[in-house]
Specification:
The complex is a heterodimer of chains A (about 120) and B (about 110). Chain A has about 120 residues and is mostly beta strands. Helices cover about 0% and strands about 55% of the residues of chain A. In chain A, a hairpin with a 6-residue loop joins strand 4 and strand 5. In chain B, strand 4 and strand 5 form a beta hairpin. The chains are: A mainly beta (about 120), B mainly beta (about 110). At the A-B interface, strand 5, strand 9 and strand 10 of A face strand 5 and strand 10 of B.
């Protein structure tokens, strides 16, 4: 099946630093999404990318959909303690029949921010 | 108001038992999903229903049987529980099943099989 390689696996940073994480795949995806999961909760969508080359920002977050449609990165600027959590990339592809899109998730990046 | 809710939050049971997890969404969405998150936090889709019809069925043992009594509910029944079933199970919903439809996740059910 399709796999997403997400890196780094974990990061320990100081408050105020910038963070970058990325996902790569051998397969093409129609959509790239970035989710954040806080402890004991479900993932929450941060940014969705729909077109190759698209660069989108959401506050201190910036993400890009790679030109080849096989990769994406997420940057967080000026990190704060509440940025702590697990960040997942996810790629969306159609299922059988060309519809019923499903998400394939990366293995996550655990972010720790030291105040 | 909770958009996607799951019950129970925690479930501890013995190997071989049968258990169910319930999910409800009040977003008016047509599509619902079940995901499994293992101990390494890897999230993988199990099933997807659109308007009560099964549309995605990944390689999941047939001990797992989803049931959708209406489009606001998707329950997961698990027979003959095994140790490897221990995980966090997430329900999610989206407006439709097409590209770009944001999936909203529930808080998860942590299943522990002893």
């Amino acid at each position: 099946g399709q796999q997403l390689n997400q890196s780094p696996q974990s990061m320990f940073i100081q408050e105020g630093e910038d963070v970058s994480m990325n996902c790569t795949s051998s397969s093409i995806f129609n959509t790239w999404l970035w989710y954040k999961q806080d402890p004991g909760e479900g993932p929450v969508l941060l940014i969705a990318l729909y077109k190759a080359g698209e660069l989108t920002s959401n506050g201190r977050l910036t993400a890009q959909f790679g030109i080849t449609r096989k990769d994406s990165f997420l940057n967080i600027s000026a990190s704060i303690p509440s940025d702590v959590g697990i960040y997942f990339c996810a790629g969306q592809t159609p299922g059988s029949g060309g519809s019923n899109y499903k998400l394939t998730f990366g293995k996550g990046t655990l972010l720790t921010v030291n105040p | 108001d909770t958009a996607v809710s799951q019950t129970p939050k925690y479930l501890v049971t013995q190997m071989g038992n049968d258990k169910s997890i319930k999910c409800e969404q009040n977003l008016g969405h047509d599509t619902m999903y079940w995901y499994k998150q293992d101990s390494k936090k890897f999230l993988k889709i199990m099933f997807s229903y659109n308007n009560k019809e099964l549309i995605i069925n990944e390689t999941v043992p047939n001990r797992f049987s989803p049931k959708s009594p209406d489009k606001a509910h998707l329950n997961l029944h698990i027979n003959s529980l095994e140790l490897g079933d221990s995980a966090v199970y997430f329900c999610a919903s989206s407006q439709e099943s097409g590209v770009g439809n944001e999936q909203f996740f529930g808080p998860g059910t942590r299943l522990t099989v002893l």
